[in-house]
Amino acid sequence: MSASPALTVAVALDQARAAGLDRVDRDVLMGALLGRDRAWLLIHDDHPLSPAQAARWSDWCARRAAGVPVAYLTGQHEFHGLLLQVTPDVLDPRPDTETLVDWALERLAALGGAAPTVFDLGTGSGAIALAIQHRHPKARVGAVDRSAAALAVARANGERLGLDIDWRQGSWFEPMTGLRVDLIVSNPPYIRPDDPHLADLRHEPREALVADEDGLADLRTLIAGAPAHLRPGGWLLLEHGHDQADAVAAIFEAAGWHEIGHRLDLGGHRRCTGARRP
Ligand SMILES: C[S@@+](CC[C@H](N)C(=O)[O-])C[C@H]1O[C@@H](n2cnc3c(N)ncnc32)[C@H](O)[C@@H]1O
């Protein structure tokens, strides 16, 4: 009996399409499977997969079709030009969060100080802290997460990328006792516990996503606690849900913050709100 013919790149990609995977996911997964870029895949679509690669491909397609994020399958995700290792212990960093990083870099440029200090609260994979440190090497950047498992992923990313971050475990401002910085940034949990979209996010850690009080509980805690940890003139920049901009601005306003402003995400929604310390 002759062995069955090897699965080629083209046939494997067709199988993935039939399983419901979209074009971008198919290309990213095949690139990661073979360690090749998209241009190579286009030219070599008759390249045969080894039996081990074919088995992994079939496993990845089934898990992706079941909603597992691509980054959990490949173990990595590019964020703001950095390749981060990502595991199911951390939120898969979203392109929309690059908006918050860009705003933080703008604020740091406006500060003009020699070595501004920045803290990223709820750092997850370390995405925001690492991107800021990478783009603004003079900044002294710290990062907090309550989850020890998440912080281990973030720390490993920092070591691999050669970026020196002051990693601290604890709840929000707890690990910042006695510390005042120029800028605090955070992408905290902000999804309402009854949000129907949560079903699509079931593979990511719930404690990274969900907050009480219509999703505003952690945003309120951050706005209430930040003044005690910001220097005069310091800024707090927050990511939140696409429909929470007015609510977050109202919380800032009620607490007497200045220069309240917003930034838009890739879809044109007011995704970030920030202000200067009262
Ligand atoms: C939406 S994720 C953001 C992760 C990462 N900053 C990003 O943008 O991809 C929120 C993060 O906040 C952390 N977190 C939740 N509650 C916290 C708390 N009370 N104190 C510190 N971190 C917390 C979660 O563990 C999670 O890593």
UniProtKB/TrEMBL annotation:
* EC number(s) recorded for this UniProt protein: 2.1.1.297
Task: Describe the family membership recorded for this protein in Swiss-Prot or TrEMBL.
Answer: Belongs to the protein N5-glutamine methyltransferase family. PrmC subfamily.
Q: Which InterPro entries match?
A: DNA_methylase_N6_adenine_CS (IPR002052), HemK-like (IPR004556), N5-glutamine_MTase (IPR050320), PrmC_N (IPR040758), RF_methyltr_PrmC (IPR019874), SAM-dependent_MTases_sf (IPR029063), Small_mtfrase_dom (IPR007848)
- Catalytic activity as recorded in UniProt: L-glutaminyl-[peptide chain release factor] + S-adenosyl-L-methionine = N(5)-methyl-L-glutaminyl-[peptide chain release factor] + S-adenosyl-L-homocysteine + H(+)
* Methyltransferase as UniProt keyword: yes
User: What GO terms in the biological process aspect are recorded for it?
Assistant: methylation
Gene Ontology MF terms: peptide chain release factor N(5)-glutamine methyltransferase activity
Tell me the protein's name: Release factor glutamine methyltransferase
Q: What class of enzyme is it?
A: transferase
- For the Release factor glutamine methyltransferase N-terminal domain, which residue ranges apply? 19-75
Q: Does the keyword Transferase apply?
A: yes
Keywords from UniProt, A to Z, are: Methyltransferase, S-adenosyl-L-methionine, Transferase
Give me the residues that bind S-adenosyl-L-methionine, please: 122-126, 145, 172, 187
Q: List ligand-binding residues for substrate.
A: 187-190
